[in-house]
Amino acid sequence: MTKTTKKPQAKSKAARALAPREQASVRERLQVILPNLPPAAARIARFIVDHAADVVHMSVTEVAEKAEASEGSVVALCQQLGARGFQQIKIGLARDLVQPVQFIHEDVARNDRADTVIEKMFRSGILALEDTMRVLDPAALQKAVDIIVAARSVEVYGVGSAAPIAEDANYRLLRIGIASKVVTDSHVQAISASLTGKHTAVLTVSHSGSTHETVTSTRLAREAGARTICITNYGKSPIQSHADVVLYTMARETRFRTEAMTSRIAQLAIVDALIAAVALATYDKAVTTIARTSEILSLKRI
Fold it and tell me: What ranges does the record give for the region Disordered, renumbered to this chain (predicted)?
């Protein structure tokens, strides 16, 4: 029997040109392919090359607007470089620009002692809470409360680092008597979202607002007739076009990391405020349910 050998896949021009240097930077790869790009892609590439330090702060929506292109064109260019999407390119840019220690936290230094780490981390968290309190719109929070109170059921979505926040929000909603379920698997999210309707409220947690799975699930839920609420970081992002209400966090740590530590503190603070406001709006039911569930939970303690 004659063995057949698979032909190696042809490398992209960027990969061929930079083969001797496996660790070529994102900007170097973009500069190699830039002369042969169509106009829209060339504008995106030029913007990223010229404003790399700014791009690590930005969402795919913001880059598309600055380059006068579509979000799809930005993602397509990222995939042409071998990335899964824009977030992976942001990580690559950050690696080109910063010291490795800053991926742990941008404020820490490699030789910091424990007391210094404690002070820096706590101050970072405090700053995120103060900034979030300033950008959180009370009218938007009240609108989110009205949507939840009017709904027959609530679904909470989150993936990755947002999943624990979604789990906490669901637990807190159940404790005050709101019919709620949490979905953190992306496939189940899509199915569940498509089966919602006008009597369902959807709460999505997405720090970047660009995570494909949660953007898709939020879009499907809204198309099915559900009212949608999103907790996301301040700035323009794709998920906002599918949200009836946006509750903004302001976590600055996202400069170098896609899974920010301080963002979770800010997200939890918004969840706390939202649950408290919903409990006040459904006071009698909430107090009764809290008392009943507290009694049940007491049976689990020795």
Answer: 1-21
C-alpha pair distances (Å), 244 with each of 144, 239, 301: 9, 10, 41
CA distance linking residue 127 with residue 32, whole number of Å:
40
Domains of the chain are: 24-100 (1.10.10.10), 120-298 (3.40.50.10490)
Q: For 91-118, what is the mean pLDDT?
A: 69
Cα(48)–Cα(42) distance, integer angstroms: 10
Please give the Cα distance from 253 to 259 (Å, whole number): 9
**Residues composing the chain:** 302
What is the reported pTM? 0.73
Q: Distance (Å, rounded) from C-alpha 21 to C-alpha 163?
A: 38
Euclidean distance between CA atoms 302 and 291, whole angstroms = 19
| Degrees to nearest 5, angle at CA 226 with 223 and 228 | 95
Query: Mean pLDDT over residues 50-60, rounded?
Result: 86
